Amino acid sequence: MRYIHQHISHILAVYKGEMPLANFLKFYFKKNPILGSRDRKILSEMAYCYYRCAKGLSPKRLSIPEQIDAALLLADSHLSHMDKILPEHLRQQYAKGFEENRAVLQTQGISFEFGDLLAQQIEFSKGISHLSWLRSLLNRPRLFIRVQQQYRQKVLSLLAASELNYSVLDDYCIALPNAIAIEKILPEQSYRIQDASSQKTAHYFGIKAEDTCWDCCGGAGGKSLLVKDMAPKAVLSVSDVRKSILDNLAERFQLYQYPIPERLLFSVADEAATKAALGNRTFHHIIADVPCTGSGTWARTPEQAYFFDAHKLPEFAERQQSIAHHALQYLKPGGSFVYITCSVFAAENEMVVQSLLSQNPDIRLLRQELINGIDIAADSMFVAVLKRKL
Fold it and tell me: What are 381's strand-pairing partners?
């Protein structure tokens, strides 16, 4: 284990959150091919558990191995061979519950406090508690897939044959254990990976056949594909500031046998660029899944919680207001505007909506709520539906 601890200490010293942890580890392992499959699994699990727990551990003078051992006990870890990884005095505790393990650590002079994971005082959106969210950061979310309807029976048969522990949540959504190589079980055109809460946002769209819809922050295309799932004849336009993203979106639409939508390369945050791209066009529906802190997804990416700087929260909110306000100007009378974030912070959610309402007197709020995914080990997302008066 000395060899493993040398590597994890180096990883934690070098990594500063500048890229997703998964990407950093991939590059690190490529540079260190001597690390075998088992070594890579151990180091990955150690890194993720560390970023889930480290800020809550005290005293702060604990060595890296001591912090790693504590994190493996407290977080939702799934490493095998724990008898060879943990020190002897902790091995028997691994399979026990969180509170039991926290109590054992206290006998070793190590304490853990959830409140220290996010020390800044930040207002949360209605529908989720601060403590439940903090607790969720220690648990690995499940993998969710959205199944193409024509493949549903085949997918269920293949999953049953694989003997995986899965749950059917609705006509489209299936939950699976995390880290499953689902691509080795299912044909790629039969499903797409999409969080359960993200899938639920489709219930807010209200798009009818042949309506026009603009997905103004297209990203990976998840919301655009939902539009086509719910209203195949809708006339869809998608914009993003990254050409590579729009190219990938086109490939995904081809894979799932949907016509490639109109793709527009510009930033909605830039009012002049938006005007140049859209002119006098208007849409029945606009979907704004805006860039955000991603705090509703931090159980998947605990490194983001660890490196989060609360001073940047106003910058996110300002950008979100700018994007949403500019996009709203292209909504038809009577049209709907769906504002979405994967954040649990009120500054990015209710407060942005309130700002939009104050700046646009012809807009009214139909509904807003947080989709709390904690109980099903999913992400949490905020959705608000606004409507332009006729």
Answer: 371
Tokens linked to 339: 């504002």
pTM flag (> 0.90): yes
Q: Could you tell me whether strands 191-193 and 143-147 are parallel, antiparallel, or unpaired per DSSP bridges?
A: antiparallel
Dihedral in degrees, nearest 10, Cα atoms 40, 41, 44, 47: -110
Structure confidence at residue 95 (pLDDT): 62
Spatial separation of the C-alpha atoms in residues 365 and 388, rounded to whole Å:
9
Residues near 275 by beta carbon (within 8 Å), at least 6 away in sequence: none
Residue 78, pLDDT > 90, answer no
What are the Cα distances from residue 211, in Å, to 203, 215, 351? 16, 13, 29
Question: Per-residue pLDDT tens for 9-58?
Answer: 999 999 999 999 999 999 999 999 999 998 999 999 999 999 999 999 99
- CA geometry: angle at 67 spanning 64 and 70, to 5°? 150
SS3 letters for 203-241?
HHCCCCCCCEEEECCCCCCHHHHHHHHHCCCCEEEEEEC
Q: CB of 323 within 8 A of CB of 216?
A: yes
Give me the sign of the Cα torsion angle 172, 253, 208, 288. positive
Is the per-residue pLDDT at 105 higher than 70? yes
Taking 90 as the threshold, does the pLDDT of residue 300 lie above it? yes
